Give the backbone structure.
Amino acid sequence: MDKELLEKTANELVSPGRGILAADESNGTMSKRLEAVGVDASAESRRSYRTNLFSTDGYESSISGVILFDETIRQSMDDGIPVPNALSDRGVHPGIKVDTGAKELAHHEGEKITEGLDGLRERCEEYFEMGARFAKWRAVIKIGDGLPSSACLTTNAHALARYAAICQEQGLVPIIEPEVLMEGDHDANRCYEVTADILDETFAQCKLQGVHIPGALLKPNMIIAGKDCDSQISREEVARMTVECLTAYVPHDLPGIVFLSGGQSDEDATAHLNLMNQMGVEHPWQLSYSYGRALQAEALRTWASGESGSDSSSREAFAHRARMNGLARSGEWEEGLEA
Ligand code: 13P
């Protein structure tokens, strides 16, 4: 394992003022998002929408890396330059989603286990050759009546750790993503408990598998009440509880935490991160973003409008969200900047 390379990449991914764009929606998910805004889904429409984002002027000042799906890492920009090369040329690290999706967990109705370990070493080797320098694997944990089960927590933590070890062996920084879903009517305290459990189990498994923590990143959910819960907490409470949970359960030699947005509004995702970075304490890790929807929602809507200039308006919408989140990295975002 090349620890020096892994640490260098991980630190660059969470360098000041920058974070990650998650553009690794599977073909199924991306197609649904395109169809929802009235665009026919195809390999070409997915390429066209995404490469337009990757052509945005100056976005590299607030985006350090882009997570790609297998289809996209093999596609090219309009001028024929392969996507991973176009990103690297701007100083943006290409990343790759390497799990093959969350499938039903046997004997555990409503719960999922993320698959993709078979052949992972060979796939990582190929992605590294194509220019990828980091990877992502997402486990999903659902809160419900009697859920999550300990089977769901332990199997997903085990898979995350095995994935992380293989990536590191192949020179890719693993983004370890155990996502506790916002679906449900649970309160924020329940989200805290479950997040604590999965983080604890995941880092215990990482230790067993010999994962080099200074060469990895964590992509967690924030501590938020379920979408259908009547007692939502304030933005300040989200920030406080999230930092408290992470401080207690995440190793302090991890270089960075890059949050997912998970269905939060664009502005909430920015405001929460901003508040965490505004606290008068020094966190042991960088607190950054790896947002999918919260960076792209407006850009996708604009691109799909089909009006003349929608390509450039879409790039502007993306650049704006990237800039706002870049400011939130140092607690310098304000609501007034959104206008
Ligand atoms: P969201 O920010 O839309 O949750 O996506 C991040 C991601 O990559 C989920 O795996």
Q: What stands out?
A: The chain is about 45% helix and 15% strand. The beta strands are 19-23, 63-68, 93-97, 102-104, 112-114, 134-141, 173-180, 217-218, 256-259, 286-291. The chain has a mean pLDDT of 98. The domain at 3-333 is CATH 3.20.20.70 (TIM Barrel).
